[in-house]
Amino acid sequence: MKTLALTTLLTLAIGAYTPARAQGPYDNRADAHKDIQAALAQAQADGKLVLLDFGANWCLDCIVLSHLYEDQTVRPFLDDNFHVVNVDVGNWDRNLDVSQRYGSPIEGGIPALVILAGSGEVVASTKNGALADARTATAREVLDYLKGWVAQKPAHAAR
Length: 159
Known about the structure:
This protein is of the alpha+beta class. It has one domain (26-153): Glutaredoxin (3-Layer(aba) Sandwich), CATH 3.40.30.10. It contains six helices and four strands; from the N terminus they run ααβααβαββα. The protein has helices spanning 2-16, 32-46, 60-69, 75-81, 96-101, 139-151, and strands at 49-55, 82-88, 112-116, 122-125. It has a four-stranded mixed sheet with strand order 2-1-3-4. It is globular. Residues 4-21 have low confidence and may be disordered.
C-alpha cells in the first residue's frame, strides 16, 4: 500500500511538472527575426541604434555583459541610444541564420554585438571577439564601446 501511494504521488508530481524558462537574458522562445524587425522600426522612428547581443545563458561572459548593461553609468546611455535585442545562439544551434545575415559575428566568440542603424545598415560589430572575454570588462569599458558606436552612427540615421 505504501508503495502504491508513493508511486501515485510521484506520478502526479512528475505529471504536474513543467520546466521553467531558463534564467538569463537570452530567451530560447523569442523570435529573433521579429524582434529585430520591431527594433529597426522603432529605430527608424526615434533615431536610436539597434544593438544585437548574440549570446547564450550558459555563457559566463554573456551573463557578465548583461549585468554590466545594468550598471548605473551604462544603463541610462544604453536606454537613450539603443534598442537592445538579445539573440539566443543556444548551443551554437539557434539563430545561426541571423548571425550570418549580419556578418557572422559569433565566429569570434560570444557575446558578440552588432550595431545597426534604423535602415538595417551595420554600423559596427565585435566580430573580432572584442567582448568574448567580457568577464574581464568594466562598466567604463562597455560604456566607451557604446559611445564609440554612437559616434559612428551614419548622419542619415541621426535625429
